[in-house]
Amino acid sequence: MNPAVLIASVYVFALAAFLGYQVISRVPPLLHTPLMSATNAISGISLIGSLVLAGAVHYPLGAHILGFVAVTTATINVVGGFGITDRMLKMFGKRKSESKEAAK
Amino acid sequence: MSLTSYFMEATYLVASILFILSLRMMSHPETARRGMFLAEGGMFAAIVGTLVGTHIVTWVWIIAGLTLGSIIGAWMAISVPMTAMPQRTALSHAFGALAAALVGIGEFIVHANEMGAVTRGALGFEVMLGALTTTGSLIAAGKLQGVIAGKPVQFRGQNAINLLIALAMISSFILFWIHPETVVAFYTMLGLAFVFGVMLVIPIGSADMPVVMSLLNSYAGLAAAATGFVLGNNVLIIAGTLDGFSGFILSVLMCKAMNRSITNVLFGGFGAVIAEASHTNAGGVMREISLDDAAMQLAFANRVVFVPGYGLATAQAQHACRELGELLEGRGVTVKYAIHPVAGRMPGHMNVLLAEANVPYSSLYEMEQINPEFPSTDVAVVIGANDVVNPDARDNPKSLIAGMPILEVDRAKSVIVLKRGQGRGFSGLENPLFFKPCTTMLYGDAKSSLSHLAQAVQHV
User: Can you tell me the ipTM of this complex?
Assistant: First the structure.
């Protein structure tokens, strides 16, 4: 990694940390469980690193196999994480729309 | 740069923006779900971008991994009950961290000799954090699921041994960093990190799980961010950092809600001190109440506050609780639910359980909101909660939980405590609330007690 890339990466890290603090502080305690499973699913983005390992050119078989396991676990997180977050958030939205209909 | 590479970078940028927007929309339950669709779109774009933009030659492993992962993930998403959410989340921290660690190991195998010092440092962090989070989270999941005993595992010299392991791990890291050709150093570091993860979590009791869960969340995120540094990939850095900081913020909030420091949770060994600590002078008699009397009290109250704790989750009593609440509301009683930040086994656990039982979120109140209302509350119903309503935390400076903010149910006009038996809570502390003249006890399984109460209320 050359210095210019490193400095850019550190910038990205610092800004993401700052932004993350601002954004996540606003999430009410009500939604802390969905928040945790959502950020978990989002950090399943390490899937894209695993994809390269599992299938890129000139990589030895051992790397492909490690990549395969990583792709599997990361995909579990992405699919399972988003799925379960949606299930939870649906529950939080559900009741209000029902009572609105009842009011009509 | 080729055209496909530009396309790939563009999808990463789009994904980063969508991730941030989606978390921004998490700030309200009405927008949160739509926000998640954005994040899903971002994820999909990034995956397609990667597959188009990198030179993939072997599709077999990729397709196999994606398929297997999707099947297991979808099965988990559909089948896991809300009461098991803490275990599932702990398991997903383990999976995420393992993926990061494996990518790190793969990078080591392929590129070890051509890496610069900075990349090597990031790689070391990635693999260490990833490995220790994997085993730590597995232990946490095992404790939450009840496969491993929830009691803290402690022995003499534990902190010294842990310190030794940590030092050995960091020494191997430094050795690997200076001499990248020493393969042994790398794998020693990896092995020690796996062991260290186990050692870190076994001394921690079930009641401290909300903090541990948040910390592991943070580590898993930071491991993903380190992966981003190794691969020089910005979307990984951004997503990992967001995850890491979210976990960190939650850890701080959970610690505040227990009035303890993170070091105290990690190295304090809460359970062990209890045996020696003098039990408070909260003696006296617990008064039992009959179902009918309790139902009468509730039915003729103006304001009722339910205080759910982990006991509600273990008894799966959230639906019975909501039914009783609705019956009371039908009689014109104002019903509210008071949620302590560390009630349950992970941040926000109680809210999810009550939402599952169709309790509208507008009836769920945070500690700061509800505490001023207790003096005007006729009946506070404590369901399987103990330490979070222990007035000793406020009144007795010698108490082990002194200073922990509590739900002040003891200020209500009367309190009904639903409890399985006369035993103490998870921390093993005596709770003076149970001996107050305004408090009555209703023993039995929370679920059957609540549904019997509901029947009795109908007949009042």
Answer: 0.91
Q: Check A64 against B40: CB less than 8 A apart.
A: no
pTM of the model: 0.88
Active site residues of B: 387
Give the full edge-to-edge strand order of the sheet including B414-419: B364-366, B334-339, B303-308, B379-383, B414-419, B439-443
Instruction: State how far the Cα of B358 lies from the Cα of A91, in Å rounded to an integer.
Output: 7
The Cα B356–Cα A92 span in angstroms is 8
Asked which of B22, B49, B79 is the last residue of a domain, the reply is B79
The token duo for B104 is: 């790190």
Distance CA B320, CA B301 (A): 19
Strand residues in B135-265 grouped as ranges (E): none
Q: Is B146 left (phi over 0), alpha (psi -120 to 50) or beta?
A: left
What count of other Cβ atoms lies within 10 Å of the Cβ of residue A8?
13
Q: Which domain holds residue B5?
A: 1-79
Whether the Cβ atoms of residue B424 and residue B431 lie closer than 8 Å to each other: yes
Which of B98, B109, B237 faces A60 most closely, judged by CB atoms? B109
Q: pLDDT for B329-376, tens place per residue? A: 999 999 999 999 988 888 889 999 999 999 998 999 999 999 999 999
Min CA distance, B221 vs chain A (Å)?
A: 6
Query: Are residue B228 and residue B371 in the same domain, yes or no?
Result: no
> CATH number, domain at B450?
3.40.50.1220
pLDDT tens-digit series, residues B244-276: 999 999 999 988 888 878 777 776 554 444 434
Tell me the shortest Cα–Cα distance from B174 to chain A, in angstroms.
19
